[in-house]
Amino acid sequence: NRIRRRLKAAFEAVGLQMAKSDSDYVIVARKAAFDRPFNLLLEDARRAMREVHMGGKGRNGRQQPRKPAKA
User: What gap in Å lies between CA 32 and CA 50, rounded to an integer?
Assistant: First the structure.
């Protein structure tokens, strides 16, 4: 529960600047987030948001295709 609250706070802080209003986001909590310093969680959240919106690399290291914008 604490991990979820920490991640939620990090993504809320970053999301106000980077989130798109027409998008939904799914955050997967991992045990490593429990002890990770909050400033690093903020950096992780910023990087994740950039990668999502800029077509970053996925878990397999390959470039993820960008979905076309809905008309």
Answer: 21
Distance CA 5, CA 69 (A): 31
Task: Judge contact between 42 and 13, C-beta under 8 A.
Answer: yes
Give the global pTM: 0.66
CA-closest candidate to residue 10, choices 51, 36, 22, 20: 36
pLDDT in tens, 46-55: 888 888 877 6
Collapsing DSSP to helix, strand or coil, 57 comes out as strand
> Running DSSP on this structure, what letter comes out for residue 30?
-
Question: pLDDT of 18-40, one tens digit each?
Answer: 777 777 888 888 899 999 999 99
Tell me if residue 4 falls in helix, strand or coil: helix
